[in-house]
Each structure stands twice: as C-alpha cells, then as structure tokens.
Design goal:
heterodimer; A: alpha+beta; Alpha-Beta Plaits; 5-stranded mixed β-sheet; 5 strands; B: alpha/beta; Beta-Lactamase; TIM Barrel; 3 domains; 6-stranded antiparallel β-sheet; 22 helices; disordered N terminus
Chain lengths: 147, 573
C-alpha cells in the first residue's frame, strides 16, 4: 500500500529588497535551490511569484511536505505565510515541477519572464487549473498592493 | 587504599592454601610475574624519576607521546608531594581515552599506577549533560540556564559585556494539546525548539523552562539591538504555521526581554524581569515582544502590595457600600438604589472598584467580597421605610462558583428582605462563557422572586440573543451612550432610541445610566427610556443619608430629588 499523497497550497509576501536586477537574481537562486531540494525528497508542485508574493503548491508524502514546509517557513526572504489548503489528494495536480512569473509589471516581465519560459509552467488538470486561477488572482492583487 | 595494594593479598592466600609452606623466593617471582601480566599499568620510579620497574601495560602507555609528556608534567607538579591522585586532572589521550594516575610512596621510590577511566568519565559527562538537558526537545533546562547565567554574571564583573535574557511563551499552545492530544503537542514543541535553535548565535544558550516556556541567554555586544532583532525574528518565525503529524497548526509567541547588566546584575532577578516584560507582551495582545522597564517592576510591586492589603480588607472591615438612587421618569420618584462598593484602604485612600475588582477576581477573592456585598445590601434595604428595590452587581466569577444561589437565599432569609426587592445586575461578560449554566442559574434566581437586569448594555458584544435567551427585568444603557461628545451625536441618539424601543417591546424597563444634566435627562426621556440614574439626581449616598432621601421622596411625589449630598464618584462594583 502506498502512503497517502498530500497537497499544500500557500502564499507569502516577498521580502526580498533591492533593485529589480538583484531581486531577479535572488529569485533565480531560490528557484534553483527549491527545484533541487524538492526533487531529492520527491516533492512536486508549482511556484508563482512576482514582486509582491510567492504562491506555491507542494505535493508529496506527508513527511516530505512537512520537512519542505518547515524549511520554507524558516526562510527570512518571505513572510506572512498564508496556508490556503493542506489535504490528502489521490493524484498530484502538478506531477512535474513548474514555476512561473506572474505579474503585470513590464519591467519585471522582462526580468522574470525567462524563468517562467525555462520551467514551462503548465497546469495540466482541472484541479491544477482551479488552484492556478486562485493563486493567479492573489498574485496579481498582491503585486498591485506591493507597488 | 588503591587496587594495587590489595591485589597481592588474594594471591598470597591462594598460595597458602595450595602449598605446604612459605617460599619467599617463589613468592617474589610470582608477585613480579603477576605485576608484569596485570592489565593495569604499574611502574616503580626512583626518587630522581628513573623507571625502576614497569609492566607491559605501562610500557605500552609510555610509548604514546601524549601520555609520556602528560605524566612528566604531572610529576613535575606533584612528585614532591607525599602522594597524589590525578582524580581532578585526569590525563587525556586523544579524543576518547582518559587515564587516572595514582602515586604511592615506597621506601625507595614511588609506585605509579595508571588506570583507564574513559568509560567513567564519559558516563559522568553523560549524567552531567542529562541533568542539564530537556529530554523532550534536547534544549537545555532551567539548571543549565541558571548555571550559565551565574557564570556570565561572574564574568561580567571582570569583562563588562552586554547580554540579554529573552523569555518566550507560546500563545494558544494549550488548545493544540487539548484538541489534538499531548503527542502532537510534544511534537510541536520539538519543531518550536528547532526553530528557536535556528535563530541562535554561537555562545547563545537556550533552555525549555517547562510547558511551553523557553528562555534564551544571548551574549552579544550589540545590545539592545541584537536582542530586539532576535525577539522580532522569534515572534515572526514561531508565529508561522506548522505542519505536525499531518496537522496544520497555528500558534503564536510572545517574548519578554531584559538586558544584562543594564537592567540588573542578578541571575534570578533578570529572569523575573524578562518574565515581567513577557507578561506585558501577552497583555498587549500576544504575538509581540516587550523590553523590561523599571516601571513594570514598580507596578508589579504595587499590585503585590495591593493583593496583600486586599486579602485582609474584609477582615479589617475596610469595605463599605454607598447607594445611588434610580428614578422612574413617569412618576419622578425613586424606585430603588444601586449598591456600590468602596474600599477604604489602610493609609486613607479610597479605591474604586475598577481598580481592585479585576485583581479580586484573579486571586479568587471575588466570591467572599461579592457575598459580603449581597448580605450587607439586603440587610440595609430591609431597614428602609419604603419597599424600594436594591440593585447589586454580580460578576462572572460569582456565577462560575456554585455558591451564588445559596448566598442569595441565605441573605434574603437572614435580612427578611422580600425577594422581589433584590435586583441582581449582571454584565454581558457573565453570559459570554458557558451561557447555558448561567441561564439556568438566572432562572433559579428568578424562581426565588429575585429580579435580574442587564448592566452596561451596549459596551460589550451587545448580543441580542442574550436578551432573547433570558427575560431580563431591566436593561441598563451604558453611560457612554448618555453623556459625552459621541453620545450626543446622531449615532448615540439612534442607539439609545433603539434600545429603549427594544426594551418596550420585550416588556423590560430601560434605565439610562450616567445622567448628569437636564439636557441629557430630557433627551433620554424623549427617546423612551423609562428610568434614569446619575449625578443629576444624586451621587451615591452613604447608608445614613438614605432614610431622609426616602422620606423626601414620599413627601414630594411630583418632584424627583435633585442634588443630594455627595460622597465619592465612581461607578459600579
């Protein structure tokens, strides 16, 4: 019997300060590190970000999710973490790791657009589309709040 | 007596039983062979330090440079002494091996033995560490913190440097324990401990003091900046959600900070100061941090003295009751009085109820004080020439203790007061916790014939469901809606009108509290309030003035009594 799969959805405020170029570099670093760490513990999911927020879906075994979430919680580069959902799921909505820049700012689009293109963000189920939609709305709201 | 001195004895005994007679030469060689083969390292040194005899175990040790040099150093220090044990300064070889050296003077030289005490030393260290470790989280415990504090204190006198003590208390942790059980609570504490650990610098000491209390000793020359930044990080980090055993948990943390040696230079005192600051952080709404200030200690001391005084105030007869008339607007006559408590504290000051009732509730004195009020008010009212009502304030804690009904029954019986003349005033806070049991008590009181009114209406949640759940005899509209700038605006008027209309429909009297001017009086009358209470008619009166007021009330039926003699201002119990 396989152990149950869990899905965690949260968003948090981006606390990275600095010029857009520095922010882009820091975000690149975060993305690379999280991709590597998550792959090692068998966690997949999706990460949306812009100048205002990070919004992330994590899917995996309970202990991997706990450990990943705990590591994320200790990261000072974000704050005000809001968990939108934490529940068991029968199948992963994001079986491949995805991430995307999501914002309206043209300047940021130029900086972050390539990250999204590289990762090929693709919600590929109904559930993932629903989550994606919610996260997208939050991301856009928070971007204007941060501006 | 050392092991080496005792070991020949059993050998000798064994020989005596095995052979027919003593053989000195044979015995000596046997003894020598035994020494050579002994696992324990043994050697005999001459007085000038040359090895005269050594066994294999000793030779093996001497081949280790660390042992040889360690031994040489020990000899230099101690060989002149009569006999020495290196118990307190064992010789360490490398990481794990520790030897204890003993010397025994012989007639021509010194007997040196070395024994491997690594296991004992490791065990001693383990026991030592264990005694200073919190078994649940692996953090230090109170003993460790106290020792480290004491050490730092003695250091501070030599090298003045700055340090801070931070005490941490988790908010809402009890709810996790209560709803999800101790295993989840314990697992959560371990994650909390990890998060705290992740924020510490080298040399910082962290301990779990028990339950959900932690303390940190932070040594950092950049005080108070370092402590402030650590406190802010802890409040943020510990307040972020947790996933523990598949449960998403949300708790918070409050932090108190005291500085060393700025705030004080005593280990126990500094912990107390940090706790005082923590207490402040908690009363400021939790999820925050506070630095200790001397004023906090002074307030705490004042509170402590007040507690001592309050505990003996009943016995010393320091309480008294004053009575404020309540007037009906239709008849312009006094319908009754509200009994208000005063405390004449030793030293001459009169303390307002709002300054000591919360403390009395906290230290469990509210019930005896409340009982005293009910009994005295009933006795006083029973002596009046007219059957006017006597209103007594009853607090939430009195409802929580099962004795309220018994007290009321016995106060009525003892005084002979008709039950319908007693009116108990309760605030919404009484109904907020455990409403059903409170409603049951209210119904029992009602069955006795006692009246019940809702006091200070409009200040709390003002939940209309309370009014539906129990048929109160009276609603008292809080004075903040009657007087003052806001009350006199359109919002205040609308609220008073609405409450008055509500009371009329529900068949309840509505009393406007705090009426001070003719203008306020005509306004509340126009809004439809049925009764009023306030300084316009009378301040609270001492019992000896009541008889005249009642007489006057009867003599002039159309004119309400105005401006009777003063006692203190202030308000309800």
């Amino acid at each position: 019997m396989t152990r149950p799969l869990y899905r965690l959805v949260y968003y948090s405020r981006n606390r990275i300060a600095g010029a857009p170029g520095d922010v882009a570099q820091t975000v690149q670093g975060i993305l690379r590190a999280s991709q590597r760490n998550n792959f090692e513990v068998g966690v997949t999911g999706a990460l949306l970000f812009n100048a205002g927020i990070f919004a992330q879906v994590l899917e995996g075994r309970q202990d991997s999710i706990s450990a990943t979430f705990e590591r994320i919680q200790r990261d000072p580069r974000h704050g005000d973490v809001h968990v939108l959902g934490f529940e068991q799921t029968s199948a992963p909505s994001f079986p491949n790791w995805s991430m995307a820049y999501l914002g309206r700012s043209r300047e940021a689009e130029n900086l972050f657009g390539s990250i999204a293109a590289d990762s090929g963000f693709r919600p590929d189920s109904l559930e993932s589309e629903r989550i994606f939609r919610i996260m997208r709305e939050i991301a856009l709201e928070e971007e204007s709040a941060a501006a | 007596m050392s092991a080496i001195e005792t070991s020949p004895v059993p050998i000798e005994l064994a020989m005596n039983t095995a052979s027919s007679g003593p053989d000195p030469v044979g015995q000596a060689s046997l003894a020598e062979e035994a020494l050579r083969r002994l696992n324990r390292a043994v050697a005999v040194y001459s007085r000038d330090g040359a090895v005269q005899f050594s066994n294999g175990a000793f030779d093996a040790l001497l081949r280790q440079p660390a042992f040889a040099s360690g031994l040489a150093a020990l000899f230099e220090r101690t060989l002149a002494l009569h006999s020495v044990r290196s118990e307190d300064t064992p010789l360490s070889l490398g990481e794990r091996r520790v030897y204890q050296i003993e010397t025994v003077p012989l007639s021509h030289g010194v007997l040196v033995t070395a024994s491997d005490v690594s296991a004992e030393m490791a065990e001693r260290k383990r026991v030592n560490d264990e005694a200073r470790t919190d078994p649940l989280t692996g953090l230090g415990n109170r003993l460790l913190l106290r020792e480290q504090l004491a050490e730092l204190m003695s250091d501070l006198t030599l090298h003045p440097s700055a340090a801070a003590v931070l005490t941490i208390d988790l908010d809402r942790f009890k709810a996790v324990n209560d709803t999800l059980g101790h295993p989840v609570g314990d697992a959560l504490l371990r994650v909390v401990a990890d998060r705290i650990r992740s924020q510490l610098g080298r040399g910082d000491v962290v301990a779990r003091l028990g339950g959900d209390e932690f303390a940190i000793l932070q040594v950092d020359p950049q005080q108070p900046k370092a402590a402030e930044s650590l406190a802010a990080r802890l409040v943020d980090l510990l307040g972020r959600s947790y996933i523990v055993d598949g449960n998403l948990l949300n708790i918070g943390a409050s932090v108190g900070v005291a500085l060393l040696p700025g705030d004080c230079a005593d280990g126990d005192q500094i912990l107390k100061y940090a706790d005082l600051a923590l207490y402040r952080a908690k009363s400021a709404g939790r999820g925050t941090y506070r630095f200790f200030e001397m004023a906090m200690d002074e307030e705490m001391q004042a509170r402590h003295t007040m507690e001592i005084d309050l505990r003996r105030a009943l016995a010393l007869r320091e309480f008294s009751l004053v009575y404020q008339p309540q007037v009906n607007l239709d008849t312009s006559r006094i319908t009754g009085f509200e009994a208000l408590l005063r405390w004449h504290r030793a030293g001459g000051a009169t303390v307002a109820p709002s300054d000591f009732i919360p403390l009395a509730e906290e230290i469990g004195l509210i019930n005896p004080i409340g009982e005293w009020v009910i009994r005295n008010a009933c006795r006083e009212a029973a002596g009046w020439s007219e059957p006017l009502t006597i209103a007594v304030n009853v607090s939430a804690s009195q409802f929580a203790s099962a004795t309220l009904i018994g007290t009321v029954v016995s106060a009525l019986a003892e005084s002979g007061l008709a039950p319908e003349r007693l009116e108990l005033e309760i605030t919404e806070s009484v109904l907020m916790d455990d409403t059903q049991s409170v409603i049951d008590i209210l119904h029992s009181l009602r069955q006795l014939g006692v009246r019940v009114s809702m006091d200070d209406f409009g200040t709390g949640y003002s939940s209309l469901s309370y009014l539906r759940r129990f048929p109160f005899d009276k609603i008292k509209i809080d004075q903040s809606f009657i007087r003052g700038h806001e009350a006199e605006g359109p919002g205040g008027s609308a609220i008073v009108q609405a409450i008055a209309a509500l009371g009329r429909s529900l068949g309840m009297t509505t009393t406007a509290e705090g009426v001070e001017t003719e203008q306020q009086l005509s306004r509340v009358a126009a809004y439809g309030c049925t009764d009023v209470q306030g300084f316009l008619f009378s301040r609270p009166l001492p019992p000896e003035k009541i008889a005249d007021v009642i007489l006057n009330n009867r003599a002039q039926p159309s004119e309400p009594p105005r401006k009777t003699n003063d006692t203190q201002g202030g308000d309800s119990l």
